[in-house]
Write a structure and sequence with these properties.
Layout lengths: L1 E4 L10 E4 L9 E10 L2 H7 L16 E9 L11 E5 L8 E5 L3 E3 L13 H14 L7 E5 L4 H12 L3 E6 L2 H10 L3 E4 L5 H8 L5 E6 L6 H7 E9 L12 H6 L3 E4 L7 H14 L1 H5 L7 E6 L3 H10 L5 E5 L2
Parallel strand pairs: 8-9, 8-11, 9-10, 11-12, 12-13, 14-15
Antiparallel strand pairs: 1-2, 3-4, 3-6, 3-15, 4-5, 5-7
């Protein structure tokens, strides 16, 4: 098969479409013929040499894909050859085939094409596990999403609105904020021109955000604490703004607030399977009913993954950038 390899870490040009050995479906796995994958920030870090796959994972980038089951490994039940699926991966999505633990498979939702389904697994599992399973966002509460126009952000807006929450977002342009508003965002903050702490306070009568989904890390840590409501929950899922910040524990105690920090890729198979099962139970009916949908900025041939990485690094996109197997 062909896959995107990284012979040497570097810029987008480090991504090479090359012939590699076919993967094999092991115990509890299926082999998926990939239709499409999607670009995540973790893939860029891997390309740069900063985020190696966990032990035993495919060496190729790609944390989600869609496709068709080509082979069933030993110990797998409930799936059949030919089933159309999308999958959460630890790696290997930038390839024509990938071996996937059966617990990380999801059926194609109604009305979602086999290609566009590649935009779903990583963002849905990330949002559901952090915002709902850990931070327990409830109807009537306010969720603040940093990077509202990203793949994570566009899904978080839709899921929070579907459960009856109010949604605030930050983004860097009017065009991106307009797209967030189309998806249901109630409070729009241009982080280049406005202070999100002040804007959240103004929009919530001084109460603050009950849950904050943060991809920035250190840069926003202090202001996120300021923006939290009493009993608020800060869920950190990224560190685009740095890894070391100063935490005002007094402010955290005063708000009786909580901070969680998670990554998805290196979790044990049992934890990933539990998240995928929860997503299938709670989110897939929303997708089947058309209440939630994948937001795709563009589709790029997988053998031109370098261009897709450039698009994501320039941050001009809204939603997901997909890689389609040529």
């Amino acid at each position: 098969m062909y896959a995107i390899t990284i012979p040497e870490p570097g810029g987008p040009e480090a991504l090479v479409w090359d012939e590699v050995p076919d993967p094999v479906a092991g115990e509890g796995e299926v082999l998926v013929e990939v239709v499409a994958g999607a670009v995540n920030r973790a893939d860029i870090l891997q390309r740069q040499g900063f985020y190696n796959p966990p032990p035993g994972a495919s060496p190729y980038p790609g944390l989600e894909c869609s496709g068709r089951i080509a082979e069933i490994g030993p110990g797998v039940s409930g799936w059949a050859v030919g089933d159309e699926v999308c999958a959460l991966l630890s790696g290997g999505g930038y390839a024509e085939k990938v071996a996937v633990p059966a617990g990380q498979l999801l059926p194609l939702p109604k009305g979602v094409s086999p290609t566009q389904a590649a935009a779903l697994p990583e963002v849905v599992c990330t949002v559901w596990s952090n915002v709902f399973m850990i931070a327990h966002l409830r109807p009537g509460e306010t969720l603040l999403v940093h990077g509202g126009s990203s793949g994570i952000g566009t899904m978080a807006i839709q899921l929070a609105k579907a459960v009856g929450a109010k949604v605030a977002v930050t983004a860097g342009s009017k065009e991106k904020l307009d797209r967030c508003a189309e998806l249901g965002a109630d409070i729009l903050v241009n982080y280049r021109e406005q202070d999100f702490v002040a804007e959240i306070a103004k929009a919530t009568d001084g109460n603050g955000a009950d849950v904050i989904l943060d991809n920035m890390g250190a840069k926003y840590l202090d202001r996120n604490i300021q923006a939290l409501a009493v009993n608020g929950r800060l869920a950190i899922i990224g560190m685009q703004g740095g890894i070391k910040g100063e935490l005002n524990i007094g402010a955290l105690l005063g708000k009786r607030a909580a901070i969680s920090a998670t990554s998805l890729r290196a979790r044990p198979l049992t934890e990933k399977a539990a998240i995928v099962a929860a997503v299938r139970e709670h989110v897939w009916p929303l997708l089947d009913a058309g209440q939630v949908r994948p937001v795709v900025d563009r589709e790029i041939p997988m053998n031109d993954a370098a261009e897709a990485h450039r698009v994501v690094e320039e941050s001009g996109h809204v939603g997901k950038v997909l890689l389609v197997v040529p």
